[in-house]
Amino acid sequence: MYDVIISGAGPVGLFLACELALANCSVLILEKAENPHSPLKQIPFGIRGLSAPTIEALYRRDLLPELEVHKRLKSPHQHAGEASRRQVGHFAGIPFHDGDIDIAQWPYRLPSSTPTSLISEMEELEMVLTRRAETLGVVIRRGYAITDFHQTEDGVTVQASGQAFQSKWLVGCDGSRSVVRKAGGFDFAGTEPQFTGYTAKVAITDPEQLSPGRNVTSTGMYLQSQPGYLVIQDFDGGAFHTSGKPLTLKHVQEVLRRVSNTDVMISALHIATTWTDRARQATTYRNGRVFLAGDAAHIHSPLGGQGLNLGLGDAMNLGWKLAATIQNKAPGGILDSYQSERHSIGAQVLDWSRAQVAIMRPDPDARALNAIVRDLMNTRDGATYFAGRVWGVLTHYDLGGSYPLVGYSVPNIAFADGTTIGEYMHDGRGILLDFDGQDSLKTLVSAYSGCIKYISGTAKEQAGLSAVLIRPDGFVAWASEGKPDEQSLRQSVTRWFAQ
User: Fold this and answer.
1) pTM of the model
2) Strands 156-160 and 163-172, bridge-based pairing
3) Confidence band, pLDDT 50/70/90 cuts, at residue 80
4) Cα–Cα distance for residue pair 159/154, rounded to 1 Å
5) pLDDT at site 81
6) Cα–Cα distances in angstroms (integers) from residue 267 to residues 7, 37, 131, 142, in the given order
7) Is the pLDDT reported for residue 60 higher than 70?
8) Which 3 state secondary structure label does DSSP give 491?
9) Residues contacting residue 167 through CB under 8 Å, at least 6 positions apart
10) How far is the C-alpha of 317 from the C-alpha of 45, rounded, in Å?
11) Is residue 77's pLDDT more than 60?
12) b/e map 359-390, b = 16+ CB within 10 Å
């Protein structure tokens, strides 16, 4: 019997497996696809923007240095303070620029902070995570499609490709059409699509008829990132995507002509797929011993590229909590915090996606709203707000506590010896960081040495802190700027960790 079976070997399932295996849990991943490679995961279709929380998570697990694509390609945002007009993101196709962003409004972004956004490639990310998972002992079986499961009070029996597998827990990371979600009876509530999106690689006879970059027209939107690489939005209510009709050259040409208002000629269709802006979310992320994460738990338009980041955030949040429960190092009720913390974040992203679609519609009302949002984004405060939302800088969990940093990602504090707090998080344990080296704080957490590290040292910049308790996912559970309140610290320790 495995501790956890994960359905799906995409980035979310792989990252979750790494988190669990890092805590010595036995993990089996069942993936229905036999071949992990796909042109849609490669440049340029596979390009994804990683947000601040994702970059921090990869850095804290020493995975960021293994990603090479962002070193070869120009990152959209390396240094937020550069005085330039370089586009570094968009909302509904409306760009914002790094020279307009006031990072002083993000008080915990230190000089030693990781970038707020980076370019990555889906296939490379999966390869890096697969390599790490296998190194940690995760078993990955490809070509095993889960068809059903049965859970009891003690475990879960999973049926896949005619075989039965047993585990204590099951996590569905199997995408928007999740079998785990459907078989588990999860309610998937939300809104229906307004458009069919197309991603295609084509040969165009007369490419000069199409403008480069993103183009919003009176009938939709098309994006030509490179010659022949197209993304199209056709506001048909999602009709074609749900029709089941074959995706032919003739159809793609008809849609492209209508949306671009040209008579452009496509001579060959190499790769094509469709998608929609359907926005749905599981009303609960847990049913007994079964959890959902990533697209299995929430789907929305890929506008802004927030889906991957949202799913990786789910994995980072759930991983240490589930592992601690399996290892009997978790206080009661800790698994409930996965739902309370991540469901609200998911709901925000879905609404963010819906808002983008609302002002991209080809009608006068949407164009009027689009113009107002564009004006706001051209202000310094507006650009800073939209960048903060797109890059996840403002991600926050309501964890209580009076100190304003509680519930936010810990700043990447740099110490006098050149190390950073992120480098101390590679093993996945919590940290009590005590700048003043107080014996009473060290004694307080000594009984939790299996799950909390005590660190004391001189920092180049302390961000106004005297001591801070950091969860394994890097979020601040407790903080103090003066003499620590040891009673409140003890409460936070017992809330998140067990001896």
Assistant:
1) 0.94
2) antiparallel
3) very low
4) 17
5) 41
6) 39, 26, 40, 36
7) yes
8) helix
9) 1, 2, 3, 4, 5, 28, 155, 156, 158
10) 28
11) no
12) bbbbeeebeebbeebbeebeeeebbbbbbbbb
**Full 3-state SS string of 297-309:** CEECCCCCCHHHH
The pair of structure tokens assigned to 47 is: 């390009």
CA distance 63 to 132: 8
8: left (phi over 0), alpha (psi -120 to 50) or beta: left
- Confidence at 248, pLDDT banded by 50, 70, 90: very high
DSSP-derived letter for residue 323 is H
Whole-number Å distance between alpha carbons of 407 and 409:
7
294 neighbors 309 (Cβ within 8 angstroms): no
Specify the DSSP class assigned to residue 407: T
Residue 343 in 3-state DSSP?
A: helix
DSSP 122-191: HHHHHHHHHHHHHHTT-EEEET--EEEEEE-SS-EEEEETTEEEEEEEEEE---TT-HHHHHTT--EEEE
pLDDT digits (tens, 9 = 90+) for 310-342: 999 999 999 999 999 999 999 989 999 999 999
Place of tokens 């084509």: 202
Q: What is the pLDDT of residues 428-439, one digit of tens each?
A: 999 999 999 999
Q: What string of DSSP letters covers 67-130?
A: --HHHHSPPS-S-TT--S--EEEEETTEEEEGGG--GGGSTT--TTPPPSEEEEEHHHHHHHHH
Structure-derived torsion over alpha carbons of residues 455, 457, 463, 467, reported in degrees to the nearest 10: 40
Amino acid residing at 58: L
Instruction: Work out the average pLDDT over 439-457.
Output: 93
pLDDT at 50 over 50: yes
pLDDT at 242 over 80: yes
d(CA 28, CA 43): 29
340, with CB counted inside 10 A (0-12, 13-18, 19+), is: exposed
Band the pLDDT of 286: cuts 50, 70, 90: very high
Give the residue from 188, 124, 139, 125 showing the smallest Cα distance to 31. Answer: 139
